[in-house]
Write a structure and sequence with these properties.
The chain is α+β, with helices and mostly antiparallel strands. The chain has helices spanning 12-22, 39-44, 64-74, 88-111, 123-144, 158-167, 175-179, 181-191, 194-203; strands spanning 2-6, 26-30, 52-54, 60-62. It folds into 2 domains: 2-78, Glutaredoxin; 88-193, Glutathione S-transferase Yfyf (Class Pi), Chain A, domain 2. The protein is globular.
Amino acid sequence: MYRLYTRAGSGGFVVEAAFELAGVPYERIEVVKGVEPDPEFRKISPLGQVPALVLPDGHAMTESAAMCQLLAERHPYARLSPAAEAPARAHFLRWLTFMSSVMYPAILRYYYAQRYTADPQGVEAVKVAAVCEFERGLGILDATLEGRDWLAGERMSVADVYLLMLAHWHPEAGKLAAAWPNIERACAALREHTVLKQLNASHEMW
């Protein structure tokens, strides 16, 4: 069985969503913030970051986007992503990678700004720059969603769930609908998805 180290409100949300959407059983191990995790977790995730995933064969991995891609490949019946040969597959990989490499790190710089400067007086400047970069990414994705429902193809994919998670990490809760209406439209549909709504009961993303 898969074992997922995660925490409410973290990047583990999208991985848990992938498991739930695919109907794949997994063991959820809560990593409590501020409490030293078990030694196995530290071996898997040297940076101490969640999520971290132990595969059924005992191998382990970090990085939420990589986990989502792996689960989509291993459980194709769940249609978590477009098929490998589908034209939409390129868009899926593009936007999932864009969000994980550009937007995720940007919002981390906001919430953990002290990690990104040696100057105590520079924390606020780091946070301002982080939000600007994050919002630049939101603008790109909002334009991508113009006239379409989902980021890749005609069906929801785990990339859309990834966007839902990131969008709700914005520090100004009420800004999404006003500034990025296409993202808000997609997120509104996802918030009503039965599986995601149930998962949100413990994560409180929205």
